[in-house]
Amino acid sequence: MSTRFPLLAFMAVLMTALPVRAGDLIVEVTEIRNDRGVIRLALHNDPEEFPEGKRFRGFDEPANAGSIVVTMKDIPAGRYAAALLHDENRDGGMDKSFIGWPLEGFGFSNDAPVRLSAPPFEAAAFDVPNEGTRITIRVRYY
Q1: Dihedrals φ, ψ of 36, to 5°?
Q2: Strands 133-138 vs 22-32: parallel, antiparallel or unpaired
Q3: pLDDT of 4-59, one tens digit each?
Q4: Count of CA atoms in the C-beta half-sphere (13 A) of 8
């Protein structure tokens, strides 16, 4: 026990100091109605910030009628939820009618249902394992 215990203790400390492994998150966005503007996706890992607060990571990609596939590199393993906007006029926000009805496309991970407001984090939440994962988000238009 004279030399083994310190060595084992040192190894245990090193193993707990290793960073969380990260994988790629592949996001397929489907049912895009036209190629105007950009697809804006916000990835959240904090339920309090979903869907419109501070995002963990995001991307803006040119819209393409039909679908696009985007790879988000090095996403640490964990629980996330995604919100998407098809910003057709590139003004940075959701255009709405005078009664508040969305005029541009939107979507959420898990195809989370929308009632009178955005779904809660848990309805859209999914896990990213160490090796990464793939999700699909369908764009909805009213």
Answers
A1: -80, 140
A2: parallel
A3: 656 555 555 545 555 557 899 999 999 999 999 999 999 999 999 999 999 999 99
A4: 5
